[in-house]
Amino acid sequence: MSELNSLPKRQLIARLDASQENFSEHLASLLAFEASEDEAIDSTVAQILADVKKRGDAAVLETTNRFDRLSANSVTDLEIGQAELQAALASLTPERRQALEMAAQRVRAYHEVQKNECGSAGFSYTEADGTVLGQKVTPLDRVGIYVPGGKAAYPSSVLMNAIPAKVAGVAEIIMVVPTPDGIKNPLVLAAAAIAGVDRVFTIGGAQAVAALAYGTATIPQVDKIVGPGNAYVAAAKRRVFGTVGIDMIAGPSEILVICDGTTDPDWIAMDLFSQAEHDELAQSILLCPDAAYLDAVSASIEKLLGDMPRHEIIRTSLANRGALIKVLDMQQACDIANSIAAEHLEISTENPQHWADRIRHAGAMFLGRFSSEALGDYCAGPNHVLPTSRTARFSSPLGVYDFQKRSSMIFVSEQGAQSLGKVAAELAYGEGLQAHARSAEYRLKS
Amino acid sequence: MSELNSLPKRQLIARLDASQENFSEHLASLLAFEASEDEAIDSTVAQILADVKKRGDAAVLETTNRFDRLSANSVTDLEIGQAELQAALASLTPERRQALEMAAQRVRAYHEVQKNECGSAGFSYTEADGTVLGQKVTPLDRVGIYVPGGKAAYPSSVLMNAIPAKVAGVAEIIMVVPTPDGIKNPLVLAAAAIAGVDRVFTIGGAQAVAALAYGTATIPQVDKIVGPGNAYVAAAKRRVFGTVGIDMIAGPSEILVICDGTTDPDWIAMDLFSQAEHDELAQSILLCPDAAYLDAVSASIEKLLGDMPRHEIIRTSLANRGALIKVLDMQQACDIANSIAAEHLEISTENPQHWADRIRHAGAMFLGRFSSEALGDYCAGPNHVLPTSRTARFSSPLGVYDFQKRSSMIFVSEQGAQSLGKVAAELAYGEGLQAHARSAEYRLKS
């Protein structure tokens, strides 16, 4: 990113033109992000995992008391009961409680439709010879949700992770959330109450991931762990993958806006800010065929930035990772969007569906001028846990399907075993697997 | 497993009783399997990945020539053209070719039903205020399939990995298969021809995974890599996860048989062999409420083992990891099966569906006496790539859904933005994200 860093200091965000020579190299360097692999973190995490696996509750208690400056006497003391969750909910202002409940209701409604539409009923079909083939779909038994403590503690994430699991039919949801110095976030606990989380433990870091993955005397073993966390949590999730399921390891958040140049430029500037305010590494990019409109958005950025409480974060994010890009036309904007495969894609145009039909890769698409990403982050209904760092090329929003698994069902009739047995035996002999062949041949009538 | 190893030498397979004290500890030690994490392999793999990422074709060519004892002049020389694939197909005996084509046709038919039933069409619904929510489903652009060389080169695996990708609509499938000393397996090449693989390169190991994950001048970058491989391949897949998608890292294969004691004991013995012959680490377990029947299966094992060409592997596998387990009744058998969460579960009973309804965790269920696992391995239709090592608790057979991804679709109407905007702003202020709040508030009518 040396070229971007050498831009004049007063420019708040890079300007690029897709017709420039070397544009694709520019774009590639702008998008380049590699999660740092810190050997020291990884080796600390390996030790904590091994310790919790071996010593269970004792290891969880010691590491939690040490890292979070607590003085609990047992892991049981670290559990928050349902009464405390309900008390947190009751403590909210009516406006905030109503907003959280409406968001939960809409997220639930969307995921219920998703459940019905994603093949949750399984299927089965019968062939002419009586052979029945199909697929059975079942929910996971028990799921762990990691919720970060401190500055990145988002009640909306509790809803987005817990509700699809509940809708899928997961019997038990265990939430873990660290409470450094014993400070609890009432909004997070209220969200847990609304989402129907079954048990909450105030533990975090690699020790929490280990406890969920291996189980301890007090904390039940789960089948999958979802939810965001810091570098220690990410390293721990990578290491327990296989013992339990995990969701994607998220990179910095991204927004890509395609605009035809007729949306209020203040709106688009604020949409870019809304991503940039998350984190210095967050990425906000605008594609537009109208150079004068990019000037207008640039002016809006300049005008509005000073008023934002998180202006320092926004300024760094836009300067290092943002861009306003002039494209030839809307088709080129769609081509570039497919190569970026953004987490969030706003299509702020007339007839947005026309352009959405040309997009193959995006975590979520926000169509039309009124669909700001912020609405999707909280309450539109679809999940806000989305694939980052170009992984939308091969992965999906968190959904009901992440809390279900499938089993193939194979009933071969006696008649079916006659034709299938001959084929299987022929191929098994070809692979040198004679017991496979004989097992099929035993079912043949002599 | 010290207790199992101390069994009398002549016993071919352990006998357990679920009513014994310490049965659950016995079972846990029998199931225990940890993939060895070899630091030396991992560091070699890290070097190869970095080298291919940096030097591209040159690194792929050098490592392939060195490890596989070839003397190719360029990576282009390592590509097998469609003509050679077709020639391999033409070289098969008519019986073998017909068996391969029938297997492919049945696998294709099953996965086409699966595609129709798993929500591939996406969905969309409109709310009263005109807001439209939904989900778009699209295939991956390009997929890489790893096929091992040497003894574990299975044409059936080519079909099982490539056909679901084709059915999903993946535009390009790149297969890699190492050919140590230049020896090609015509059955594998024929299977690639039948499955519609687009390009084949004779490369393997970490260098092949790196080439697919990063792309080189000759080998295109893919979006996901699937298929089994040795420890180097597994380590490389773990490391490139995130840059590309990967399938599960498979452990040793497993069969669990639940039998009511009325199936021909020779059939069940051979079914246990068919898993054990894969690999010394493979696992074959039988659950039955009838002790006399377990004696009969034990006698069948003794009688039949000597005739099996792979009897040494079978003997080791059964002795170290197999078991015949007496259960109280069929319900207990189902409970144990749920705790084992086997890759393959045969329910060899009268009215097998009755018991299948009680199973929550299994990769594939084979119902009834004629549904031997071997039929499913080759040609029943469902996929033979299945979750191992208890991962059926949270993961699924390879399927069309592994080659598709979803995008959320959010169109908020002007009217919808009024109610959603207030909720989003309230929650955004609660999380301290003011740009999110302002972005939502801009869409409110003043």
Automatic annotation (TrEMBL), chains A, B:
<dbReference type="GO" id="GO:0004399">
    <property type="term" value="F:histidinol dehydrogenase activity"/>
</dbReference>
<feature type="binding site">
    <location>
        <position position="275"/>
    </location>
    <ligand>
        <name>Zn(2+)</name>
    </ligand>
</feature>
<keyword id="KW-0368">Histidine biosynthesis</keyword>
<comment type="pathway">
    <text>Amino-acid biosynthesis; L-histidine biosynthesis; L-histidine from 5-phospho-alpha-D-ribose 1-diphosphate: step 9/9.</text>
</comment>
<dbReference type="InterPro" id="IPR012131">
    <property type="entry name" value="Hstdl_DH"/>
</dbReference>
<feature type="binding site">
    <location>
        <position position="431"/>
    </location>
    <ligand>
        <name>substrate</name>
    </ligand>
</feature>
<dbReference type="GO" id="GO:0005829">
    <property type="term" value="C:cytosol"/>
</dbReference>
<feature type="binding site">
    <location>
        <position position="146"/>
    </location>
    <ligand>
        <name>NAD(+)</name>
    </ligand>
</feature>
<protein>
    <recommendedName>
        <fullName>Histidinol dehydrogenase</fullName>
        <ecNumber>1.1.1.23</ecNumber>
    </recommendedName>
</protein>
<dbReference type="InterPro" id="IPR022695">
    <property type="entry name" value="Histidinol_DH_monofunct"/>
</dbReference>
<dbReference type="GO" id="GO:0051287">
    <property type="term" value="F:NAD binding"/>
</dbReference>
<feature type="binding site">
    <location>
        <position position="436"/>
    </location>
    <ligand>
        <name>substrate</name>
    </ligand>
</feature>
<dbReference type="GO" id="GO:0000105">
    <property type="term" value="P:L-histidine biosynthetic process"/>
</dbReference>
<comment type="similarity">
    <text>Belongs to the histidinol dehydrogenase family.</text>
</comment>
<comment type="function">
    <text>Catalyzes the sequential NAD-dependent oxidations of L-histidinol to L-histidinaldehyde and then to L-histidine.</text>
</comment>
<dbReference type="GO" id="GO:0008270">
    <property type="term" value="F:zinc ion binding"/>
</dbReference>
<feature type="binding site">
    <location>
        <position position="275"/>
    </location>
    <ligand>
        <name>substrate</name>
    </ligand>
</feature>
<feature type="binding site">
    <location>
        <position position="377"/>
    </location>
    <ligand>
        <name>substrate</name>
    </ligand>
</feature>
<feature type="binding site">
    <location>
        <position position="377"/>
    </location>
    <ligand>
        <name>Zn(2+)</name>
    </ligand>
</feature>
<keyword id="KW-0520">NAD</keyword>
<keyword id="KW-0028">Amino-acid biosynthesis</keyword>
<keyword id="KW-0862">Zinc</keyword>
<feature type="binding site">
    <location>
        <position position="207"/>
    </location>
    <ligand>
        <name>NAD(+)</name>
    </ligand>
</feature>
<feature type="binding site">
    <location>
        <position position="436"/>
    </location>
    <ligand>
        <name>Zn(2+)</name>
    </ligand>
</feature>
<dbReference type="InterPro" id="IPR016161">
    <property type="entry name" value="Ald_DH/histidinol_DH"/>
</dbReference>
<dbReference type="InterPro" id="IPR001692">
    <property type="entry name" value="Histidinol_DH_CS"/>
</dbReference>
<dbReference type="Pfam" id="PF00815">
    <property type="entry name" value="Histidinol_dh"/>
</dbReference>
<keyword id="KW-0560">Oxidoreductase</keyword>
<feature type="binding site">
    <location>
        <position position="278"/>
    </location>
    <ligand>
        <name>substrate</name>
    </ligand>
</feature>
<feature type="binding site">
    <location>
        <position position="253"/>
    </location>
    <ligand>
        <name>substrate</name>
    </ligand>
</feature>
<feature type="active site" description="Proton acceptor">
    <location>
        <position position="343"/>
    </location>
</feature>
<feature type="binding site">
    <location>
        <position position="344"/>
    </location>
    <ligand>
        <name>substrate</name>
    </ligand>
</feature>
<feature type="binding site">
    <location>
        <position position="278"/>
    </location>
    <ligand>
        <name>Zn(2+)</name>
    </ligand>
</feature>
<feature type="active site" description="Proton acceptor">
    <location>
        <position position="344"/>
    </location>
</feature>
<feature type="binding site">
    <location>
        <position position="230"/>
    </location>
    <ligand>
        <name>NAD(+)</name>
    </ligand>
</feature>
<keyword id="KW-0479">Metal-binding</keyword>
